[in-house]
Fold each of these.
Amino acid sequence: MTRRFLQVFLLLGAAQALPSLAQQAQPEEYSLNAGYGYLLLEYQLSNSTAKLELERLDRRRRRPRSPLVLNNSDVRFELTPLPAGDYQVLNVSVPYFDLPYRKDVSEDDRWRFTIEAGTVNYGGALLVAPERSMNYVDIQLRNRWAASVDAIESTFGHVLKDYPLTVNMAYRDPFPAVLESQNAQ
């Protein structure tokens, strides 16, 4: 009985792993429609799931909100196609067991990013601390591009051949351009 249970358990685990392996790096899956770019978001969730509510900023009309769900897993990056434009994260939800938490960042310019068409746009690293209470969770969006560029290139090298990597957070960091000019010499 125990052996049969173990076999079924391993089979189910392998079945769940197969779709994730198939989704990892199929080059034909990474093609953008005209006017679209990729948002590359790095994340470290500390045993929780995060949901970001994004809004495309457009002065002419209000755009629908788009949820982006990040699950705690071994995956460190999320690559999502979005129409080109400026975006604001409105809120971040990080429930954990019976401790729901939602942080409103709609008025915080640090939670903005730009999507350029035909590029992979690094939007930052979402960090959720493991310590929390009923009323507080430490949630931050940081620029960790310099520390993560090697991991990004090894994970998404096949995508970066067709779509160059740019850093498009609210704060324009000159370091990627300086590094690129030094590497060109």
Amino acid sequence: DFLLNLCLSTAVSLAPTQIEIVVISLKSSTPLRFLRSLPHVQFAGNYTGAKKLLADVQAALQTRASEQKAFDDITLDGRADITRIAPKRTLILIDDVQQFSHYDDLNTLLDRCLETGKELEIRLFLADTSMNINQARLNSQLKYIRSATTFGNGLTFSLEGDDLTLLKLTGKLSNPQLTYHRPLMGRGRALLSLDGRARIVQFGRVGPSQQPPAQYEHNLRQLVQTIAEPYGVKEANVDET
């Protein structure tokens, strides 16, 4: 729900010309596949699709970086061009980091994307259990994991404050804080490690919490199509990979 909410709220706030959302989930039947109907989103649900998608993203980032440098180099009467155009932003979301990190060529492509897009305000979201991300972090070859756990912020849906400590993003949560939020964990609340301090964030859910899976998917399809409709985009085949 949180990952869906992140992508949907971004798509509502920004036009496809302002941001692209790259979603890679190697889980079967993930709800994230419904996002492919959004014009902002490029989705891959298997190794082959992920490899092609990351290669395409790197090429697009390289083009944007070159264009941005050209704009930065333009001068008017010896002064910097004040009409500098902001580049299109890229958000890459990897669901199930441990499974993704097993593919060396995918790791290499993702590192290249981040290196190419570092001047273009690229953003990377890594989703998995704290234990799995910590295990992936121990692989010294994964630059994106090292950077994320060194400079990034962490989110955990666990009731255990140690999960944040495991990621080395902040210290243990205080017992009063943990006890206060315990009844609501998993119902739209999560613990966020930001600037070394633990905070509480909330997010929405599509429909009632106890609705049948089929109804949940129907509501999600409708919401995605409502967001995509102003751009003239028809519903995509969510079973394609």
